[in-house]
From TrEMBL, chain A:
Transmembrane segments: none annotated. InterPro entries: CT_C_D (IPR003833), Cyclophilin-like_dom_sf (IPR029000), PxpB (IPR010016). Pfam families: CT_C_D. Keywords: ATP-binding, Hydrolase, Nucleotide-binding. This is Carboxyltransferase domain-containing protein.
TrEMBL record, chain B:
Gene3D superfamilies: Cyclophilin-like. Signal peptide: none annotated. The keyword Hydrolase applies. PANTHER family: 5-OXOPROLINASE SUBUNIT C (PTHR43309), CARBOXYLTRANSFERASE DOMAIN-CONTAINING PROTEIN (PTHR43309:SF4). The keyword Hydrolase applies. Keywords: ATP-binding, Hydrolase, Nucleotide-binding. Residues 25-307 form the Carboxyltransferase domain. This is Carboxyltransferase domain-containing protein. InterPro entries: CT_A_B (IPR003778), Cyclophilin-like_dom_sf (IPR029000), PxpC (IPR052708). It comes from Pseudomonas asuensis. It comes from the Bacteria.
Length: 226, 317
């Protein structure tokens, strides 16, 4: 069931499925392209989520009734499209030094050893489902269900840049020091965002990521500074 | 480039334009002024295009020396400004000549003042904007997200001939930041998933601005704790969204907010009222009242048209 609803005074939220599926991120990227082509510069930003597409629009061009009238038929066309041809997805290997402050609490909460948590975290490929929260912050999933935990009840004021974290069925790396509501498992020196690079972010929605456990020396040799 | 030399930068003074748009799909925050209304007034008084670069001055404490002859405008929190010891009226434009010093005291009410200059301050754009986002390390004079520092020069063109007289905003446009504002809220997001009595509690309770407040978000605290529903999948968020984490005390997202979030969203503060919240110090009381989306949209369109079309007749000498 697709829902189209206002999301504040200057945005429209499309909820495209109840729960995400492996092909949905690529499909949502396709929908974002269709919306961009149809609405042009009346679109300010398009933010794909796991099962959503948030359209930030120019209120001086379209009010809610206008934008809904324009977007609804685009979604209908998209829904009836055969499985969209997706841009070839890349696979990245991302080194992680598993030294996180929450490793032991995560292990305890999941009734696992720390080694088992690490093995489960780097034991599978993850799909980039969305990029957001901070520049280059890629939401990746899905975690092995043995290490699925809710977010922290109250976010921490600060974690270090490169912190590798988990929450719910997702994993991610914090590209900058920032507040964080996720559980921290380790650190990575892998570059995630450079405004001078083209594109500024090496990961794209639909890419696959595999974490590789490394030691502190390898992390530091790669430029890790924490 | 010559301009205004920073003698004292104050606790947190940031270059801001309308914001960094078009990059939220990579997680880049829009940033921009916390109080868009006061920033827009600074540009308006100088007949600058909407979103020309201004300096957002948190709390005050700034001293600048002019290297050019030009006109400036100061709006937002009143700071007791002087040019070479002569008082400058709040919410007005005034001229400054080479060698003169602008001194700004500390805010008696409100949190942030906005300093504009004829033509806007000039800096290299990063991803299309000079807006400073410190955590992301983007924008500002050096492009790396730094606040103003001693000996920085805020580049600007000479503009002494732009005007022949001072001008201020009519008093009815100048907010009284000492008042406890009622912030209008458009329901949406996960709002319907909150129990009815939870929504009623949110609107009927007074809230206080928590000391945990910055350009990213303003936490509220109150006796009435809310019980949010559970949201599993992160999605796009924006300034004004009221997030309710499991502990039950709301967070209003502000100019430097993340592009996506996972906490349930109760609704959206009217973008114009968000300007008012940006001026509330810690422990200031705020309340919320519901508003229909159509009303919020027509109101906001008026706001944009006013500042983008330069309706100068609404100013007074």
């Amino acid at each position: 069931m697709i829902r189209i609803e206002p999301y504040g005074a200057e945005a429209l939220l499309l909820t495209l499925a109840q729960t995400p599926s492996p092909d949905l991120p690529g499909r949502i990227a396709r929908l974002a392209d269709l919306v961009q082509q149809a609405l042009g510069d009346a679109v300010i930003d398009l933010v794909p989520g796991w099962n959503t597409l948030l359209i930030h629009y120019d209120l001086l061009r379209y009010d809610l009734a206008d934008i809904q009238a324009r977007v609804t038929p685009i979604v209908e066309v998209w829904r009836q499209e055969p499985e969209a041809v997706q841009s070839p997805s890349r696979r990245h290997e991302v080194p992680v030094w598993y030294c996180g402050s929450d490793l032991e609490s995560v292990a305890a909460a999941c009734s696992l050893t720390v080694d088992a948590v690490i093995a489960l975290h780097c034991g599978r490929d993850y799909l980039v489902g969305a990029i957001g929260f901070a520049p280059g912050f890629a939401y990746m999933g899905e975690l092995d269900e043995q290490i699925v935990l809710p977010r922290l009840a109250s976010p921490r004021p600060r974690v270090e840049a490169g912190s590798v974290a988990i929450a719910e069925r997702m994993t991610a790396i914090y590209p900058q020091a920032s507040p964080a509501g996720w559980h921290i498992l380790g650190l990575s020196a892998w570059p995630l965002f450079d405004p001078q690079a083209e594109p500024p972010c090496p990961l794209a929605v639909g890419d696959r990521v595999r974490f590789v456990a490394v030691d502190e020396a390898t992390y530091r040799a790669a430029g890790g500074q924490v | 480039m010559r301009g205004l030399k920073v003698i004292k930068p104050g606790p947190l003074s940031l270059l801001q334009d309308a914001g960094r748009y078009g990059w939220r799909h990579l997680g880049v925050s829009t940033s921009g002024p916390m109080d868009r209304q006061a920033a827009a007034w600074a540009n308006h008084l100088l007949e600058n295009p909407y979103g020309s670069a201004v300096v957002e001055i948190a709390l005050g404490g700034v001293e600048l020396e002019a290297q050019v002859d030009t006109w400036l405008a100061l709006t937002g929190a009143p700071l007791g400004a002087t040019v070479d010891g002569q008082a400058v009226p709040a919410w007005s434009r005034f001229c400054m000549k080479t060698g003169q010093r602008l001194q700004l005291g500390f805010a008696q009410a409100g949190q942030r003042a906005y300093l504009g200059v004829v033509g806007g301050f000039v800096a290299k754009t990063i991803l299309g904007s000079v807006a400073t986002h410190r955590r992301e390390g983007l924008g500002g004079l050096g492009g790396d997200g730094q606040a103003l520092r001693v000996d920085d020069v805020l580049g600007c063109s000479p503009g002494l001939n732009a005007f022949d007289k001072a001008l201020g905003a009519a008093s009815r446009f100048i907010p009284d930041y000492r008042e406890s504002p009622t912030l209008r809220l458009v329901m949406g997001g996960d709002g319907e998933a909150f129990a009815k009595e939870q929504r009623e509690r949110f609107f009927s309770s007074p809230w206080q601005v928590s000391p945990q407040a910055d350009r990213m978000g303003i936490r509220l605290q109150g006796d009435a704790s809310l019980e949010p529903p559970v949201r599993q999948w992160s999605l796009g968020v924006l300034a004004g969204a009221v997030q309710v984490p499991p502990e039950g005390q709301p967070i209003v997202l502000m100019a430097d907010c993340q592009t996506m979030g996972g906490y349930p969203v109760l609704g959206f503060v009217h973008p114009v009222d968000l300007c008012r919240l940006a001026q509330c110090p810690a422990y200031h009381e705020v309340r919320f009242a519901p508003i229909e989306l159509e009303e919020a949209q027509s109101d906001l369109k008026r706001f944009y048209r006013f500042f983008k079309n330069h309706e100068m007749n609404l100013c007074a000498d």
